[in-house]
């Protein structure tokens, strides 16, 4: 059986912490920013830990 290829696109979007948690940028900060309140855009900055339900699927794509 050949090796699984890692999904390079997913590798560019997420990072894995030292303890194995998946961290990614929050959604909703690409367009229509004039309509959104400044408090909302401030809240959306930075990275956030993804849900445990998604970590299994993402780690499989990353080849871990």
Whole-angstrom Rg:
15 Å
Biggest sheet record: 3 strands, antiparallel
Helical percent range?
25-40%
Q: What is the level-2 CATH architecture name?
A: Irregular
Low-confidence stretches: none
In total, the number of strands is 3
CATH level 3 topology: Factor Xa Inhibitor
CATH class: Few Secondary Structures
Strand content: 15-25%
**How many domains make up the 3D coordinates?**
1
> Mean pLDDT score, rounded?
94
Strand order of the largest sheet: 1-2-3
Order of helices and strands: HEEHEH
Structural class: alpha+beta
Question: Explain this structure to me?
Answer:
There is one protein chain. The chain is α+β, with helices and mostly antiparallel strands. The protein has a single domain (8-62), classed as Factor Xa Inhibitor, CATH 4.10.410.60. 36% of the residues lie in helices and 16% in strands. The protein contains 3 helices and 3 strands; from the N terminus they run H-E-E-H-E-H. It has helices spanning 8-13, 38-43, 52-62; strands at residues 14-16, 22-25, 47-49. A hairpin with a 5-residue loop joins strand 1 (14-16) and strand 2 (22-25). The chain is elongated. The model has no long low-confidence stretch (mean pLDDT 94). One of its GO terms (molecular function) is structural constituent of ribosome. Belongs to the bacterial ribosomal protein bL35 family. This is Large ribosomal subunit protein bL35.
């Amino acid at each position: 059986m050949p090796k699984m290829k890692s999904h390079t696109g997913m590798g560019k979007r997420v990072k894995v912490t030292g303890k194995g948690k998946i961290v990614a940028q929050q959604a909703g900060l690409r367009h229509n920013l004039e309509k959104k309140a400044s408090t909302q855009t401030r809240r959306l900055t930075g990275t956030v830990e993804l849900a445990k339900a998604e970590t299994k699927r993402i780690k499989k794509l990353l080849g871990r």
